[in-house]
Amino acid sequence: MHDLATTRHWADQGTQIFSGALARTADDALTGPTALPGWTGRHLVAHVAANAEALLNLAHWAATGEETPMYSSPGQRDADIAAGARRTPGELRRWVEESAGRLATALDGLSADHWSRTVRTAQGRLVPASQIPWLRAREVMVHAVDLDPTLGFDNLPEDFLLALVDDVVARRSGGDQPALVLSADGGRHTWKVSGRGEATALHGSLGAVAAYLTGRPRADVTAPSGAVPDLAPWL
Ligand code: ZN
After folding, report:
1. Which residue has the higher pLDDT, 8 or 234?
2. Both 8 and 106 in a single domain?
3. Using the 8-state DSSP alphabet, how is residue 109 labeled?
4. What are phi and psi of 204, to 5 degrees?
5. pTM here?
6. What's the gap in Å between 222 CA and the centre of ligand 1?
7. Span from the CA of 235 to the centroid of ligand 1 (angstroms)
8. How remote is the CA of residue 74 from the centroid of ligand 1, in Å?
9. Same domain membership, residue 119 and residue 45
10. Into how many domains does the chain fold?
11. 181 Cα–ligand 1 center, Å
C-alpha cells in the first residue's frame, strides 16, 4: 500500500477537487441527476459529508481504542443519505466543508501508535487506521467526477488513478465477476481481473479504465473482441 504522506496528500487534493466541483454546481443543479443512477447532487453531497463523519468515527476508534464503527447499522448509511438529501443546498455546502475540516483536524492528531490500530471499514474489512486517508481520498475524488459533468476521470491525478485501479482490481478479482484484461494508455499499464469466463480484453485511457472499473456509466473503454461487460457501481 502507499505511504501515509502520499494518501494524506491525495485526501487533501481530492477534498479540494470535490470543493471545486461543488462550487461549479449551482443550487438548482444539485437537485438534478448525477452520474450515479438514482442519486441527485444533494444525495451525493450528503453522502460525502456523512462519509467524513463516518471516517471521524474510525479516527476516534484509532485514537481511543473504543470501537466506533463507521455506521451504526447497514441501513443507517442509506437512511443518513436520504435524510441529508432533504437539507437545503446552503446547509449541504456548509456540512460537507465543515465535516471535511473536522476530519483533517482529527487525522492531524493521530500518533504512529494510533495509525497502526485495527479498525473496520463499512464493508467489514479489518484494516490499520493508516488506511483512513486512502478511504477518504477515493470517495472525494470519485464523487467529484460523479457530481461535475465537466470533470472526467482523466482530470484526476495520474498517481491516484493508478492506485485506484490497483485497489478496484484487487476487490473485483476472484469472485463471480467477469474476467478481464485491461490495458491503459496504449499498453503502458495493464491489469488482470480474475473471474468468471474467458477474459475480455479492454482498452482505454487510464481515466476510462478507472471509470469502467468503478462501474461508472459511459466509461470510454473498448473491447476489440466484442461487447464490454457491465460492472455494478463501486463506492
Ligand atoms: Zn461513496
Report:
1. 8
2. yes
3. T
4. 175, 180
5. 0.95
6. 26
7. 4
8. 14
9. yes
10. 2
11. 25
Give 212's contacts (C-beta < 8 A, 6+ positions apart). Answer: 182, 202, 204, 219, 221, 228, 231
Percentage of the chain beyond pLDDT 70 is 100
* CA–centroid distance, residue 161 to ligand 1 (Å): 16
CB atoms within 10 A of CB 220: 14
Taking only the tens place, the pLDDT of each residue in 209-218 is 999 999 997 7
* Of residues 58, 52, 82, 84, the one with CA closest to residue 70: 58
For residue 81, the domain's CATH number is 1.20.120.450
How many angstroms separate the alpha carbon of residue 134 from the centre of ligand 1? 13
- The CA 18 to ligand 1 mean position distance, Å, reads 12
pLDDT of residue 217: 77
Per-residue pLDDT, averaged over 26-30, amounts to 96
- Is the pLDDT score of 233 beyond 90? no
Residue 11 CA, ligand 1 centroid: distance in Å: 14
Average pLDDT over residues 149-156: 95
Q: Are residues 172 and 145 in the same domain?
A: no
Amino acid at residue number 51: N
Domain ranges, residue 95: 4-151
Final residue before a domain boundary, out of 100, 128, 151: 151
Average pLDDT value over all residues in the chain: 95
Task: Tell me how far the alpha carbon of residue 198 lies from the centroid of ligand 1, in angstroms.
Answer: 30
Q: Let me know whether 74 and 157 are in one domain.
A: no
What pairing do the DSSP bridges indicate for beta strands 178-184 and 196-204? parallel
- Identity of the amino acid at 67: E
128: β partners: 118
| Dihedral pair phi/psi, residue 102, rounded to 5° | -65, -40
